[in-house]
Structures are given as structure tokens and as C-alpha cells.
UniProtKB/TrEMBL annotation:
This is DNA repair protein RadC. Keywords: Hydrolase, Metal-binding, Metalloprotease, Protease, Zinc. GO terms for biological process: proteolysis. InterPro entries: MPN, RadC_JAB, RuvA_2-like, UPF0758, UPF0758_N. CDD domains: MPN_DUF2466 (cd08071). The keyword Zinc applies. Belongs to the UPF0758 family. Residues 107-229 form the MPN domain. Signal peptide: none annotated. Pfam families: RadC, UPF0758_N. GO terms for molecular function: metal ion binding; metallopeptidase activity. It comes from the Bacteria. SUPFAM superfamilies: JAB1/MPN domain, RuvA domain 2-like.
Length: 229
């Protein structure tokens, strides 16, 4: 964005509207802006003797945002007109970009204990919850969904309520879990029958029910560990 130097010394309100980043963004969209213009909007204002457009150009100095990813606070403060506050604004923008660019570390479920670590909090609930854990083909966590929440020991769940999220997340494996607020992790006859039915329906739809974990007050019951799946 090459402009006459006088442009950078003028107050923003005195510049033609076609040079104002905010107006340009509103008219043509943010994708139409240069790196300097995007930075100008993020900074909000310039400093004494130089408006925000000129300040943005000085910071970038012909470089792209990617080339600034390792710039330090000290480097920024060496630029005339950049104090600690402005430097931190720029560094915050760069940090946000880094966090959006870097993939989050995947949570992998390779054992019952891995799954239980995600579910142990249920032991403290006074109401019964049914939770679904949805995994990809590498057993990496895609999503964790609260399927249902009831009072005392009453939770009414249909297999379709669980399998719906399997379709939504395009998962491979499913682990379900619910808690017994009375403290016991022992499965009821209803729990056993429900698990068998869900396992069969899951297979028919292309999913694998990997486990059903019942969380008690101090322990858990795993259908997979007991050979019931």
C-alpha cells in the first residue's frame, strides 16, 4: 500500500474515504484489505505525528504478517512511535494468528482409564447424565456430548439419541457413559439390555460401540473390561 508520505501525517478524519481501512472493509469486505490496512484497524489509532495507517506501514516495513511471527517486544519498541501498549497490541494479534493456525493436540483414548479420566467428574453429580464420546479411526477424540440429563436415577435415552451424534461427527467409535448418583457402579438389567441393543444398532449403522462405562462414587464399571461388548 504505497502512499505519499504526507498521507501518513494527516489525521485520519482528513483522509479521503477510499483510503480509510474501516470504510473499505465495510464496503468491500476484510479480504480486500492489505496487511497494513488490517493492522491499522486492529491498532485503532496512531501516535503523535503519524496516523494509524503510517504506523502500520512502519511496523510491517514491507513485510507480511507471517514474516513478523517471531518479532519481539523489544524489536517493536525500537520503532519510533511504538510504545509498550502498541507493541503489545501487535504481539496479541500475532499470538491470536498463531493459535488459530496451530492444530490443537488430539486427545487419544487407548484404554478404559483414558476414557474414565474424561468422565470421572460425573461421580460428583447428583443427577444422572448420559454422555457420549465420539472417536475417529485412530481413537482420537472428535467430540464429547451430553446426551441426556435426568433427576435421581431417571434418564430416558433412545439409541437414536446417541447414534445421531455419531452421524453428525462422522465418527468411527463410540463410548457411552452414565453415572449412578446412588454411588454404585453396578449395572442394572436395564443397563445391560440397553447396551446390547445399542451395540447391535451401532454396527448396523457403521459404528463400533467400544464401551459403556458406569461411573459410581469411587469406582467405575466397564462393559468392555467385563467382556460384555
Amino acid at each position: 500500500m504505497k502512499q505519499d508520505r504526507a498521507v501518513y501525517k494527516k489525521p485520519i478524519k482528513d483522509l479521503p474515504k477510499d483510503l480509510l481501512p474501516r470504510e473499505k472493509a465495510l464496503k468491500y469486505g476484510l479480504s480486500s484489505l492489505s496487511d497494513e490496512e488490517l493492522l491499522a484497524i486492529s491498532l485503532g489509532s496512531g501516535t503523535k505525528g503519524i496516523n494509524v495507517i503510517g504506523l502500520s506501514q512502519k511496523i510491517l516495513n514491507g513485510k507480511s504478517f507471517k514474516e513478523l511471527k517471531n518479532i519481539s517486544l523489544e524489536d517493536l519498541k525500537k520503532i519510533k512511535g511504538i510504545g509498550t501498549t502498541k507493541a503489545l497490541q501487535v504481539l496479541s494479534i500475532i499470538e491470536i494468528a498463531k493459535r488459530m493456525e496451530d492444530p490443537e493436540e488430539k486427545v487419544k483414548i487407548t484404554s478404559v482409564s483414558d476414557a474414565y479420566s474424561l468422565l470421572k467428574y460425573l461421580s460428583k453429580e447428583s443427577q444422572e447424565y448420559m454422555v457420549g464420546i465420539y472417536l475417529n479411526s485412530s481413537n482420537e477424540l472428535i467430540a464429547k456430548e451430553v446426551i441426556a440429563k435426568g433427576s435421581l436415577n431417571v434418564v430416558r435415552v433412545l439409541p437414536r439419541d446417541i447414534l445421531y451424534y455419531g452421524l453428525k461427527h462422522n465418527c468411527n467409535g463410540i463410548i457411552i457413559a452414565h453415572n449412578h448418583p446412588n454411588g454404585s457402579s453396578k449395572p442394572s438389567e436395564e443397563d445391560i439390555n440397553f447396551t446390547k441393543k445399542l451395540s447391535q444398532l451401532a454396527l448396523e449403522m457403521g459404528f463400533e460401540l467400544l464401551d459403556h462405562i458406569i461411573v459410581g462414587k469411587n469406582d467405575y464399571f466397564s462393559f468392555a473390561e467385563k467382556g460384555l461388548i
